[in-house]
Amino acid sequence: MIVQPLPDRSAPVAVVGSGAMGAGIAQVAAAAGHTVLLLDARPDAARLAVAAIRKAFIRQAAKGRMLDAEADAACRRLRVVEAPGELAGAALVIEAIVEDLEAKRALFAQLERIVGPDCLLATNTSSISVTAIGAALTRPQRLIGMHFFNPVPAMALVEIVSGLATDPALAAAAHATALAWGKVPVRAASTPGFIVNRVARPFYAEAMRVALEGGGSPATLDAIMRDGAGFRMGPFELMDLIGHDVNFAVTASVYAGYFQDPRFAPCVMQQELVNAGFLGRKSGRGFYVYGADGPAPLPAEEAARPAPARAVLRGDLGGPMTAIGARAARAGVELQRESHEGPSCIEVNGACICLTDGRSATRRAHEAGQGGLVLVDLAFDAAGARRLALARADQCGDAAYAAAVGLLQAAGYVVTPIADVPGMIAMRTVAMLANEAADAVNQGICDAAGVDTAMTRGVNYPRGPLAWADMIGLARIEEVLRNLGAVYGEDRYRISPLLQRRAMGTGRFHGA
Known about the structure:
By secondary structure, the protein is an alpha/beta fold. The chain contains 20 helices and 15 strands. The protein has three domains: about 180 residues, Rossmann fold, CATH 3.40.50.720; about 180 residues, N-(1-d-carboxylethyl)-l-norvaline Dehydrogenase, domain 2 (Orthogonal Bundle); about 110 residues, Transcription Regulator spoIIAA, CATH 3.30.750. The strands form two sheets. The chain has an eight-stranded mixed beta sheet, with helices on both faces. A seven-stranded mixed beta sheet has the order 10-9-11-12-13-14-15, with helices on both faces. α10 crosses α11.
């Protein structure tokens, strides 16, 4: 069996399936120096894919990203084959065909009879159990998952997924091969969604729930997640880009795979889009309307309010409220600091501004007997964020609210109001991402470093969920989840046993 990355660059790598994923994998393998055999059952599909890959290499050379000689050599390493029998000499075969268990099983059963005994068989499945695919093989130990991300040449992550029968030496070989191809491999166990497609579910689910509850429009919530929480794309625009048929199918697959665990339940809002054929960018309409006639999606923003002359910062130094106060002070607001045993807050002209803790502002004001309560959402970096979301308690009067808005605007934030939903949008989403990541680690799917690498390199999160939880504080994450659970009364917000343990113990997922 292979225990090193493919050492003989003359030994071909075969890719079966020449769609976007298969073509991307073929391009990466050819660029890494391998002869690549590309096979597709569809007439001319592989030939057209090879032509497109060769154009991509030529473009890279024209932009100075490859030498002309390197691009020419990579182009010559691409070969179209017409039948599975021509793959007999491959050292590695990567399957990238339709996401159908029986189709994959049939292909690998055929390949097993063709390739040599030391050939590594890999599936690029994004959601089907590697164990289930391998069960049809005579030697299931030779099958590994190598889940690349689209577009393959640009995306660094590869999930190396072991089924129950996978030989650990083959997992090591696949990991080393991905490294040799310039990728960032992360090991995972074969469970529904692996790492990324499981841990990412709350990014979409919490946003849709907030929208369903009238928390804000997709444009408003997307703007908060981009300009406040630091994500490259908001959840609604990302779902439109992925395609609602694809995104909904992945959610349904993970939900079914975990036997209807409510944490992964699909959303009726997205089901309706799929039913209507509003699949996102590819159909011209999803959460947004695309094309020349589509209205520009504008987030809600507060009109300018007068800056207050002074404010009081109460609580321990450090954290987002201190950063907000420092920004306001630099803009000329006289800031007085006072010690305070409760949560950090800024008091200004009858308003008390606090960071959300998972309760609604109205509930929190009622429990504290505090009428002018205004909550701010989590920001990736409160000291540098462009936008900050705000929610007012029902008990908060207009004058107090205007004072809170004026202070935040003086501090340089674009202030975006949302309705008073529990946990707002960024805080509840990050807390749920951290909780899901903790559960993945707790269940042995991956380790803490692996889940953070997967989410930053696979879906471009600004920070790994567990590193983010460390920064926010595990006790605060636990508090947010506990409060969400109390409001909704749903098992969806149950707290991972590992998160609870770390909160009581080291207080961190990374480091001492």
